[in-house]
Amino acid sequence: MTKTTYVATAPDGSEHVRKSERTYTHAVLVEGKEGWGAVGFCGRPDLAEKKCGEHPGSIVVECGVLGDRAADMPEAADTKPAATPAGEEKTVDQKIRETKVHMPEGAEPKQTIGSMVQELLIDPDLGYTAIVDRVMTDFPDAKTSVRSVASVAAVLRKKGVNIPIRRKVKSSDQG
User: From CA 21, how far away is CA 4, in angstroms rounded?
Assistant: First the structure.
């Protein structure tokens, strides 16, 4: 059997390639310090969604076969207007909004501790302790701490996500 070259394209346009005798339809990608990277390639959408759930912040994209397009066929032009002016880099929020996640019909995205913490961090009225309390309500066995929530907030801020700053409550104000 001959090996096929599969290509998965990340939201920033980078391509991730895998050569295999297996058949792949989807890839799971995650953004890191050096850009997007492939977590894995999968042969079915449900397997890709399962792998995506194991890696917080990852996305599922369809992958194609290298050279699948006829040589004389022109490549399709992107007709959507650019979200940012030429020369400016997109923010993480813009990349997330523009990313298409493929879910099996009727399936709802699985709530994870990481995704819940990320959602709750957006609310400026919630302190880290309140976020930990809500996580522990939904995930009683979680080992989430105020320190881990603060760490997630710091990472998101480094990636350019607008996370409100929480001020420490002075011990005399806690009464």
Answer: 6
Domain positions in the chain: 1-69+89-104, 111-165
Structure tokens at 31: 């953004």
Question: Which residues have C-beta within 8 Å of that of residue 173, sequence separation ≥ 6?
Answer: none
Rounded Cα gap, residues 118 and 131, in angstroms: 10
Q: Are 45 and 25 in contact (CB under 8 A)?
A: yes
Q: Residue 122 carries which side chain, given as an amino acid letter? A: I
0.90 exceeded by the pTM?
no
Amino acid at 1: M
Q: Which amino acid is at 44?
A: R
Per the document, the length of the chain is 175
- Asked whether the beta carbons of 28 and 44 are under 8 A apart, the reply is no
pLDDT digits (tens, 9 = 90+) for 37-61: 888 999 898 888 888 888 888 888 8
Cα-atom radius of gyration of the chain, to the nearest Å? 20
Type of residue found at 92: V
